[in-house]
Amino acid sequence: MKLKTKILLGYLVVLALLLGLGSYNLYNLSRLDRAAQNILKDNLYSVQLGQEMNNALSHLLVTQQQAVFLKADSVEIAESTRADLRRFEASLQKESENITEPGERETVESMRQTFAELKRLLHTSAAVPSEAYFVTVMPKHQLLQDKIHQMVSLNTDALQLKNQQAQETSQRVWQYTLALLACSVLFALVFCFSVPEALTQPIQQLITSLEYVAQRNFSQTLPIKGNDEFGAVSKVFNQMLVRLREYEKSTLSELITEKNRIQSIITNLDEAIILLDAEGKIILANPVACRLLGLPPEKLIGAKTQDVAAQNDLFKELLKGIEAGSSDSPEAVLSITDLGEEAYYRKSVFQVLAYNEVLGKQEFAGYILSLRNVSDFKKLDQVKSNFLATVSHELKTPLASINYSLKLLQNQRIGEMNDEQQHLVATIKTENQRLQKMVTELLDVARLENGNIQLNIATANVADIVQFAANTIQLQLREKNIHLEISLPPQLPPVKADVEKTSWVLLNLLSNAIRYSAQNETIVLSASEGKGEVVVQVKDHGPGIEPQNHERIFQRFVQVPGKEAYKGGSGLGLSISREFIQTQGGRIWVESEVGQGSTFGFTLTV
């Protein structure tokens, strides 16, 4: 769709909005007019109340005259008088609650006083002679009627005045709205037919000049007309053309110098660097990379990655990060024979993104493959692992001796101890057992790092593993009165696993669940069949784990931070569990929210 059409459609939409706005305003004015008329009902209500009071007063006057001059039945007269007084008083009360005009409150108060005097006189009117009636009672009737007439006149005058003002205001608003709406429509129509043409003409000139620029013709300048935005654009565009002509005439010596400098830096790096373009071709390989791959540069540069991978196993291994769609794989460490010696290199794969100024977005430009020599770090890690294994192994014997000695101390045949001594020995025994457990875990870590742990993979029944773990953990469950709920489907396929290591993992997860659960809670141990695997899960109702710590807790020597954290562990259990499960071809994870408990799960291959 052309820009002119877009602008025209945009202004037509504006026109439609103006029409809608005008219609809506007219509708609101109509509603305002009706609302003003409704307001006038308050004055009309006062007029109606005045008529009701007049009727009650007139009927009261007739009744009293019958009682004074005709000596009518006093019982009926009294009942009628009370009814008229109640009618008048009720209307007077309603009028006092509907004061709307200046002076109306004073008139109503005067009516209330006069009515009170009349009411007092009517209680004694039966004993008043007819001559005195015209002197005492009749003037009060007349005065009250005058007050009612005055109140009605106030509201009638106000009713007429407000009605006239509302009509004048409504008529004036209608005129103003119609005038503004007409001006808006006319203004929008003028814009719809004039502005698009004024905008598209200089834009078309700019497009024509840009087409020449795309063909490397920098002579098509734009005419500068006026000092508006298009004039400024034309001026800047012409300056750009001048710079482009100057740049076209300049040499590429600076670019070549920079290219040679970057290439020299990459060539002299002690890391292997390989650059791939977006089409999967090798555009650069420094000497270290050529040496490790065992291929000369002429066989690498310009070759396709698939062709080189088919002939070179190391290059095929490097491409695994690209095939997996990973932009960075810092944990991949490869063992490579370099200069006749075994060396360790850390593989990294990075995506190269280039900013496309034409499209205004980042675009994929290729990959950087790097191999960094980490042999020294690997040797230090090996020394650490050996030291850890040696120290842990040496600690087992004295810790076992200490544990045996503590058992002897607790034996009453050796000698009785008081309560404080028994408490101290029990505390030392607990801490000694914790040290033994930590030493065992450190030995497992050392064996995992050295690859000395042998897995006995065999066909196993998940229900047997679950039942063994449940029976073993009963003592810990009873200490906190925690109920273990086991949920297993009737038919679970057998799995391929190391029963001992898998039972250790399940016991570790159950121990953690008990450790972080409160008294009298319930832990759910369940298993279900997945696609080619069996999923085992342990769910507790503990404090939960924050999302940012879901991955950290599987690292070595890491515990969940916070006041709810358990301080007695070594931070190795989950790390060892992950090694055991992943070595068997499974995976382990946690699902948890703070305050909602945690669910740890792992899979076993069918």
From TrEMBL:
Q: Carries keyword Magnesium? A: no
Which membrane topology term applies here? Multi-pass membrane protein
Subcellular location as annotated: Membrane
Domain HAMP: residue ranges:
197-249
Q: Could you tell me which PROSITE patterns the record lists for this protein?
A: HAMP, HIS_KIN, PAS
Please provide an example of a Pfam family that matches this protein in its UniProt record. HATPase_c
Primary location recorded for the protein, binned into one broad class: membrane
Q: What is its EC number?
A: 2.7.13.3
Q: Which catalytic reaction applies to this protein?
A: ATP + protein L-histidine = ADP + protein N-phospho-L-histidine
Taxonomically, the superkingdom here is Bacteria
Tell me the keywords, alphabetical order: ATP-binding, Kinase, Membrane, Nucleotide-binding, Phosphoprotein, Transferase, Transmembrane, Transmembrane helix, Two-component regulatory system
Q: Where is the Histidine kinase domain?
A: 390-606
Which residue ranges does the record assign to the PAS domain?
A: 258-302
Enzymatic class = transferase
Name of this chain's protein: histidine kinase
Q: Which organism is it from?
A: Rufibacter sediminis
